[in-house]
Amino acid sequence: MDITDIRLAQERIQPFVKRTRLEKSETLSRRLGSNVYVKYEIFQRTGSFKVRGAFNKILSLPQELRSAGVVAVSGGNHAQAVAYAANVLGISSVIVMPESTPGIYVEATRGYGAKVDLKPTIAAAFEAVSGYQLQGLTFVHPFDDPLVMAGQGTLGIEIVEDLAEVTDIIVSIGGGGLMTGVATAIKSINSAVKIWGVETVGADAMAQALDAGKVVQIGAITSIAKTLGAPAVSETTLAAAQSSLESVTVVPDSEALEALIFIAERLKILTEPAASCTLAAAERLRENFSPDSNVVFILCGGNQSVTALCEFLQ
To answer: Which of 56, 70, 75, 117 supports an S-S bond with 101, CB 3.0-4.6 Å?
Structure first.
């Protein structure tokens, strides 16, 4: 996957996704002493960046495979993205989800027309995929697929097109598909841009893999940032992190939640902890930014249940 693939993806998915806005935040700029911009991907269709990769993957399938339907595994935003893309394109979809998936995600996924198959664990959900593939369905992986990563990378092209003078980008990492796509796009256009990864304690598969120098399976996802909850990254996304990231900052849930509240009160938007953790990380990284820096926060998703937020606060 390279910049050519990402540019092709941008052309392919353009009729189906939003070009989300990039705006300077005076509030965040004053707080960090730098020029801080926000990429509002929370206003993307289905509430996250995931539709970019979902559409690029499905639109790339030959017609006979597309018409047979698709299957995906997700307990979060990828589920809704694949269900929505399949619905728009008039094909069937099955989303295999762990039983721990928040109800808001299950209901939304069904609302987009997908059949939801609940399994006891995320591992069991992945194991169920092979049975659907035998039925002819194509697997749309949540992150470890060049076409999915290229779709996510279109977000990076938009950032550079809207802010040519960008110096730093802060991006959340789950399985690493968004980070890999964005890093590939950004570094191909301007290799001087620094890219900073973020995870939360209890959903830190990439940080653990970087420490070990290899892909590792983490135990149960204990972070409230459920949409960062990949049990492992992939060889491809690990390699991208090793070659493209300045670092991966792992923040506790408490800091992600404090940042979520600040963003809600001052920017007037409700994000997921998986997105607000970018601000929490920036607080820890602030010595790396100067008054002349142009720092972009990618607010990657906004599918936060108000009920769950109230539970977090308690």
So the answer is: 75
